[in-house]
Amino acid sequence: MALSGGLRCCQRVFSWIPVVIITSVVLWSYYAYVFELCLFTLSNTLEKVAYLLVFHVCFVMFSWTYWKSIFTPPSSPCKKFQLSYTDKERYEMEERPDAQKQILVEIAKKLPIFTRAASGAIRFCDRCQVIKPDRCHHCSVCETCVLKMDHHCPWVNNCVGFSNYKFFLLFLVYSMLYCVFIATTVLQYFIKFWVGELRNGPAKFHVLFLMFVALMFFVSLMFLFGYHCWLVSKNRSTLEAFSAPVFQNGPNRNGFNVGFRRNLRQVFGENRKLWLVPVFTSLGDGHFFPMRSRNESRNPLLASEEQWEEDGGSDEESAGLQRDPSVTVEIES
Description:
Layout: H1 2-14, H2 17-39, H3 45-71, H4 85-93, H5 97-108, E1 124-125, E2 130-131, E3 137-139, E4 144-146, E5 151-153, E6 158-160, H6 165-195, H7 202-234, H8 238-242, E7 246-247, E8 250-251, H9 260-268, H10 294-297, H11 305-310, H12 316-319
Antiparallel strand pairs: 1-2, 3-4, 5-6, 7-8
Helix pairs in contact: 2-3, 2-7, 3-6, 4-5, 6-7
Protein backbone atom coordinates (compact mmCIF):
# COMPACT_ATOMS: atom_id res chain seq x y z
CA MET A 1 0.00 0.00 0.00
CA ALA A 2 2.82 2.37 0.94
CA LEU A 3 4.70 1.37 -2.21
CA SER A 4 1.67 2.12 -4.35
CA GLY A 5 1.29 5.52 -2.69
CA GLY A 6 4.99 6.26 -3.25
CA LEU A 7 4.77 5.34 -6.93
CA ARG A 8 1.70 7.53 -7.36
CA CYS A 9 3.52 10.42 -5.70
CA CYS A 10 6.52 9.97 -8.02
CA GLN A 11 4.22 9.83 -11.02
CA ARG A 12 2.64 13.13 -10.03
CA VAL A 13 6.05 14.76 -9.61
CA PHE A 14 7.34 13.47 -12.98
CA SER A 15 4.14 14.59 -14.70
CA TRP A 16 5.22 18.21 -14.16
CA ILE A 17 8.48 17.73 -16.10
CA PRO A 18 6.97 18.72 -19.51
CA VAL A 19 5.47 21.86 -17.93
CA VAL A 20 8.83 22.73 -16.36
CA ILE A 21 10.54 22.26 -19.74
CA ILE A 22 8.07 24.56 -21.54
CA THR A 23 8.28 27.15 -18.75
CA SER A 24 12.09 27.10 -18.84
CA VAL A 25 12.18 27.57 -22.63
CA VAL A 26 9.71 30.46 -22.41
CA LEU A 27 11.64 32.18 -19.61
CA TRP A 28 14.87 31.81 -21.57
CA SER A 29 13.18 33.23 -24.69
CA TYR A 30 12.03 36.22 -22.61
CA TYR A 31 15.60 36.91 -21.45
CA ALA A 32 17.08 36.35 -24.91
CA TYR A 33 14.58 38.61 -26.69
CA VAL A 34 14.22 41.42 -24.14
CA PHE A 35 17.81 41.69 -22.95
CA GLU A 36 20.13 40.13 -25.54
CA LEU A 37 18.24 41.36 -28.61
CA CYS A 38 16.29 44.50 -27.68
CA LEU A 39 18.49 46.03 -24.96
CA PHE A 40 21.98 44.89 -26.03
CA THR A 41 21.74 44.54 -29.83
CA LEU A 42 19.17 47.02 -31.17
CA SER A 43 20.38 50.61 -31.56
CA ASN A 44 17.22 52.25 -32.91
CA THR A 45 15.18 53.46 -29.90
CA LEU A 46 11.84 53.57 -31.75
CA GLU A 47 12.33 50.03 -33.05
CA LYS A 48 13.35 48.87 -29.58
CA VAL A 49 10.22 50.31 -27.93
CA ALA A 50 7.89 48.93 -30.61
CA TYR A 51 9.41 45.46 -30.38
CA LEU A 52 9.24 45.40 -26.57
CA LEU A 53 5.64 46.61 -26.52
CA VAL A 54 4.28 44.02 -28.96
CA PHE A 55 6.43 41.27 -27.48
CA HIS A 56 5.06 41.82 -23.98
CA VAL A 57 1.47 41.76 -25.25
CA CYS A 58 2.13 38.39 -26.90
CA PHE A 59 4.01 37.14 -23.84
CA VAL A 60 1.22 38.09 -21.42
CA MET A 61 -1.52 36.49 -23.55
CA PHE A 62 0.56 33.35 -24.02
CA SER A 63 1.29 33.07 -20.28
CA TRP A 64 -2.34 33.76 -19.36
CA THR A 65 -3.75 31.06 -21.65
CA TYR A 66 -1.07 28.57 -20.63
CA TRP A 67 -1.83 29.18 -16.96
CA LYS A 68 -5.57 28.72 -17.55
CA SER A 69 -4.98 25.49 -19.49
CA ILE A 70 -2.87 24.07 -16.66
CA PHE A 71 -4.79 25.16 -13.58
CA THR A 72 -8.43 25.04 -14.71
CA PRO A 73 -9.69 21.82 -13.09
CA PRO A 74 -11.51 19.42 -15.43
CA SER A 75 -15.29 19.38 -14.93
CA SER A 76 -16.79 16.18 -13.56
CA PRO A 77 -20.38 14.90 -13.72
CA CYS A 78 -22.72 16.50 -11.20
CA LYS A 79 -24.54 14.66 -8.40
CA LYS A 80 -27.50 13.87 -10.66
CA PHE A 81 -25.32 11.31 -12.48
CA GLN A 82 -23.97 9.70 -9.31
CA LEU A 83 -25.67 6.63 -7.90
CA SER A 84 -27.61 7.27 -4.74
CA TYR A 85 -26.78 5.22 -1.67
CA THR A 86 -29.78 2.96 -2.28
CA ASP A 87 -29.05 2.48 -5.99
CA LYS A 88 -25.38 1.85 -5.29
CA GLU A 89 -26.28 -0.79 -2.72
CA ARG A 90 -28.70 -2.49 -5.13
CA TYR A 91 -26.11 -2.43 -7.91
CA GLU A 92 -23.30 -3.87 -5.80
CA MET A 93 -25.44 -6.59 -4.22
CA GLU A 94 -26.74 -7.76 -7.59
CA GLU A 95 -24.43 -10.41 -9.05
CA ARG A 96 -26.15 -10.94 -12.40
CA PRO A 97 -24.76 -8.65 -15.15
CA ASP A 98 -28.14 -8.38 -16.90
CA ALA A 99 -29.82 -7.29 -13.69
CA GLN A 100 -27.09 -4.70 -13.08
CA LYS A 101 -27.65 -3.32 -16.58
CA GLN A 102 -31.38 -3.08 -15.90
CA ILE A 103 -30.74 -1.12 -12.71
CA LEU A 104 -28.64 1.38 -14.68
CA VAL A 105 -31.35 1.62 -17.34
CA GLU A 106 -33.93 2.53 -14.68
CA ILE A 107 -31.67 5.23 -13.24
CA ALA A 108 -30.82 6.59 -16.70
CA LYS A 109 -34.51 7.21 -17.45
CA LYS A 110 -34.26 10.41 -15.41
CA LEU A 111 -31.11 11.65 -17.18
CA PRO A 112 -30.54 13.31 -20.58
CA ILE A 113 -28.35 10.53 -22.00
CA PHE A 114 -28.35 9.80 -25.73
CA THR A 115 -25.13 7.84 -26.29
CA ARG A 116 -24.39 4.26 -25.33
CA ALA A 117 -21.44 1.93 -25.02
CA ALA A 118 -20.49 -0.08 -28.10
CA SER A 119 -22.53 -2.98 -26.71
CA GLY A 120 -25.60 -0.75 -26.39
CA ALA A 121 -25.40 -0.66 -22.58
CA ILE A 122 -25.49 2.43 -20.39
CA ARG A 123 -22.05 4.02 -20.08
CA PHE A 124 -21.17 3.54 -16.42
CA CYS A 125 -17.86 4.23 -14.68
CA ASP A 126 -17.08 1.64 -11.99
CA ARG A 127 -14.27 3.75 -10.55
CA CYS A 128 -16.22 7.00 -10.13
CA GLN A 129 -19.56 5.24 -9.64
CA VAL A 130 -21.33 7.60 -12.06
CA ILE A 131 -23.42 7.18 -15.16
CA LYS A 132 -21.39 8.96 -17.81
CA PRO A 133 -23.06 11.92 -19.53
CA ASP A 134 -22.73 12.17 -23.30
CA ARG A 135 -19.12 12.83 -24.40
CA CYS A 136 -17.81 12.16 -20.88
CA HIS A 137 -14.87 9.78 -20.38
CA HIS A 138 -12.75 8.57 -17.51
CA CYS A 139 -9.15 9.82 -17.42
CA SER A 140 -6.81 7.29 -15.86
CA VAL A 141 -4.18 9.98 -15.23
CA CYS A 142 -6.48 12.49 -13.49
CA GLU A 143 -8.41 9.56 -11.95
CA THR A 144 -11.79 11.15 -12.61
CA CYS A 145 -14.53 11.30 -15.24
CA VAL A 146 -14.14 14.42 -17.39
CA LEU A 147 -17.01 16.19 -19.15
CA LYS A 148 -16.55 16.37 -22.93
CA MET A 149 -13.06 14.99 -22.56
CA ASP A 150 -10.80 15.71 -25.53
CA HIS A 151 -7.47 14.27 -24.37
CA HIS A 152 -4.99 14.36 -21.51
CA CYS A 153 -2.19 16.73 -22.47
CA PRO A 154 1.20 16.16 -20.80
CA TRP A 155 2.39 19.64 -21.85
CA VAL A 156 -0.21 21.25 -19.59
CA ASN A 157 -0.35 18.29 -17.17
CA ASN A 158 -4.12 18.44 -17.28
CA CYS A 159 -7.14 16.98 -19.00
CA VAL A 160 -8.41 19.08 -21.88
CA GLY A 161 -12.19 19.01 -21.76
CA PHE A 162 -15.34 21.08 -21.44
CA SER A 163 -14.00 23.45 -18.77
CA ASN A 164 -10.72 24.40 -20.48
CA TYR A 165 -10.98 23.48 -24.18
CA LYS A 166 -11.34 27.13 -25.17
CA PHE A 167 -8.26 27.99 -23.08
CA PHE A 168 -6.29 25.21 -24.75
CA LEU A 169 -7.20 26.48 -28.25
CA LEU A 170 -6.25 30.04 -27.29
CA PHE A 171 -3.01 28.72 -25.85
CA LEU A 172 -2.19 27.24 -29.26
CA VAL A 173 -3.15 30.52 -30.99
CA TYR A 174 -1.03 32.76 -28.77
CA SER A 175 1.84 30.26 -28.79
CA MET A 176 1.97 30.46 -32.59
CA LEU A 177 1.64 34.25 -32.50
CA TYR A 178 4.48 34.41 -29.97
CA CYS A 179 6.71 32.24 -32.18
CA VAL A 180 5.82 34.10 -35.38
CA PHE A 181 6.54 37.50 -33.84
CA ILE A 182 9.91 36.36 -32.49
CA ALA A 183 10.91 34.73 -35.78
CA THR A 184 9.94 37.71 -37.98
CA THR A 185 11.62 40.34 -35.79
CA VAL A 186 14.74 38.27 -35.14
CA LEU A 187 15.23 37.29 -38.81
CA GLN A 188 17.23 40.34 -39.95
CA TYR A 189 19.56 40.14 -36.94
CA PHE A 190 19.85 36.39 -37.39
CA ILE A 191 21.14 37.05 -40.92
CA LYS A 192 23.50 39.80 -39.74
CA PHE A 193 25.01 37.55 -37.09
CA TRP A 194 25.20 34.68 -39.59
CA VAL A 195 27.13 36.69 -42.21
CA GLY A 196 29.29 38.44 -39.61
CA GLU A 197 27.91 41.99 -39.88
CA LEU A 198 27.46 42.14 -36.11
CA ARG A 199 30.26 41.41 -33.66
CA ASN A 200 30.41 38.06 -31.94
CA GLY A 201 29.23 37.88 -28.35
CA PRO A 202 26.68 36.23 -26.07
CA ALA A 203 23.85 37.84 -28.04
CA LYS A 204 24.81 35.91 -31.17
CA PHE A 205 24.13 32.54 -29.58
CA HIS A 206 20.80 33.70 -28.12
CA VAL A 207 19.57 35.27 -31.37
CA LEU A 208 20.54 32.25 -33.50
CA PHE A 209 18.97 29.82 -31.07
CA LEU A 210 15.84 31.98 -30.74
CA MET A 211 15.28 31.72 -34.47
CA PHE A 212 15.60 27.93 -34.57
CA VAL A 213 13.44 27.35 -31.48
CA ALA A 214 10.69 29.74 -32.66
CA LEU A 215 10.47 28.07 -36.08
CA MET A 216 10.57 24.56 -34.63
CA PHE A 217 7.76 25.23 -32.15
CA PHE A 218 5.70 27.11 -34.74
CA VAL A 219 5.72 24.21 -37.20
CA SER A 220 4.67 21.66 -34.57
CA LEU A 221 1.99 23.99 -33.15
CA MET A 222 0.65 24.78 -36.61
CA PHE A 223 -0.19 21.12 -37.31
CA LEU A 224 -1.75 20.64 -33.87
CA PHE A 225 -3.82 23.82 -34.16
CA GLY A 226 -4.97 22.90 -37.67
CA TYR A 227 -6.16 19.53 -36.41
CA HIS A 228 -8.13 21.09 -33.57
CA CYS A 229 -9.67 23.67 -35.93
CA TRP A 230 -10.96 20.74 -37.97
CA LEU A 231 -12.32 19.10 -34.80
CA VAL A 232 -14.13 22.29 -33.77
CA SER A 233 -15.64 22.70 -37.24
CA LYS A 234 -17.03 19.14 -36.98
CA ASN A 235 -17.89 19.42 -33.26
CA ARG A 236 -15.80 16.39 -32.34
CA SER A 237 -13.35 15.70 -29.59
CA THR A 238 -10.07 13.90 -30.23
CA LEU A 239 -11.55 10.76 -28.67
CA GLU A 240 -14.66 10.99 -30.88
CA ALA A 241 -12.49 11.40 -33.98
CA PHE A 242 -10.91 8.01 -33.24
CA SER A 243 -14.00 6.29 -31.86
CA ALA A 244 -17.41 7.51 -32.99
CA PRO A 245 -20.07 8.01 -30.29
CA VAL A 246 -22.80 5.39 -30.37
CA PHE A 247 -26.39 6.62 -30.64
CA GLN A 248 -29.70 4.78 -30.79
CA ASN A 249 -29.17 4.14 -34.50
CA GLY A 250 -25.52 3.16 -34.16
CA PRO A 251 -22.13 4.95 -34.31
CA ASN A 252 -22.15 8.42 -35.83
CA ARG A 253 -19.13 10.76 -35.84
CA ASN A 254 -21.38 13.65 -36.92
CA GLY A 255 -23.98 13.14 -34.20
CA PHE A 256 -23.09 16.41 -32.43
CA ASN A 257 -22.30 18.38 -35.60
CA VAL A 258 -24.92 21.16 -35.75
CA GLY A 259 -23.25 23.36 -38.36
CA PHE A 260 -20.02 25.35 -38.41
CA ARG A 261 -21.34 28.51 -36.72
CA ARG A 262 -23.18 26.67 -33.97
CA ASN A 263 -20.17 24.41 -33.40
CA LEU A 264 -17.96 27.48 -33.03
CA ARG A 265 -20.35 29.11 -30.57
CA GLN A 266 -20.46 25.99 -28.42
CA VAL A 267 -16.74 26.41 -27.70
CA PHE A 268 -16.34 30.20 -27.75
CA GLY A 269 -19.79 31.42 -26.71
CA GLU A 270 -22.20 34.02 -28.06
CA ASN A 271 -20.15 37.15 -27.27
CA ARG A 272 -17.56 37.49 -30.04
CA LYS A 273 -15.72 40.20 -28.10
CA LEU A 274 -14.64 37.54 -25.61
CA TRP A 275 -13.61 34.88 -28.11
CA LEU A 276 -9.92 35.74 -27.89
CA VAL A 277 -9.95 36.40 -24.13
CA PRO A 278 -9.17 33.43 -21.83
CA VAL A 279 -12.37 33.61 -19.79
CA PHE A 280 -14.98 30.85 -19.76
CA THR A 281 -17.71 31.55 -22.34
CA SER A 282 -18.53 28.07 -23.68
CA LEU A 283 -22.23 27.25 -24.00
CA GLY A 284 -24.00 24.64 -21.92
CA ASP A 285 -23.00 22.85 -18.75
CA GLY A 286 -21.09 19.94 -20.27
CA HIS A 287 -23.72 17.33 -19.41
CA PHE A 288 -25.76 17.35 -22.62
CA PHE A 289 -25.32 18.88 -26.07
CA PRO A 290 -27.40 19.78 -29.13
CA MET A 291 -27.88 16.90 -31.56
CA ARG A 292 -27.56 16.89 -35.33
CA SER A 293 -31.01 15.35 -35.85
CA ARG A 294 -34.08 14.55 -33.81
CA ASN A 295 -33.57 10.90 -34.67
CA GLU A 296 -30.39 10.75 -32.60
CA SER A 297 -31.78 12.90 -29.80
CA ARG A 298 -34.82 10.66 -29.32
CA ASN A 299 -33.81 8.79 -26.19
CA PRO A 300 -36.01 5.79 -25.30
CA LEU A 301 -34.61 5.84 -21.76
CA LEU A 302 -35.22 9.51 -21.02
CA ALA A 303 -38.64 9.75 -19.42
CA SER A 304 -39.01 13.45 -20.20
CA GLU A 305 -36.69 16.38 -20.56
CA GLU A 306 -39.09 18.43 -18.44
CA GLN A 307 -38.49 16.04 -15.56
CA TRP A 308 -34.75 16.74 -15.78
CA GLU A 309 -35.46 20.47 -15.75
CA GLU A 310 -37.85 20.24 -12.78
CA ASP A 311 -35.32 18.22 -10.78
CA GLY A 312 -32.81 21.04 -11.00
CA GLY A 313 -30.85 20.10 -14.12
CA SER A 314 -27.15 19.71 -13.47
CA ASP A 315 -26.61 22.30 -10.76
CA GLU A 316 -25.27 24.68 -13.38
CA GLU A 317 -26.54 27.67 -11.43
CA SER A 318 -24.20 26.85 -8.58
CA ALA A 319 -21.33 26.34 -11.01
CA GLY A 320 -22.03 29.67 -12.69
CA LEU A 321 -21.90 28.22 -16.19
CA GLN A 322 -23.88 29.36 -19.25
CA ARG A 323 -26.31 26.96 -20.79
CA ASP A 324 -27.01 26.44 -24.46
CA PRO A 325 -30.70 27.22 -25.01
CA SER A 326 -31.04 24.73 -27.88
CA VAL A 327 -30.84 21.14 -26.72
CA THR A 328 -31.82 19.64 -30.05
CA VAL A 329 -31.14 20.99 -33.52
CA GLU A 330 -32.39 19.44 -36.72
CA ILE A 331 -30.38 20.04 -39.88
CA GLU A 332 -31.56 19.24 -43.33
CA SER A 333 -28.95 17.52 -45.43
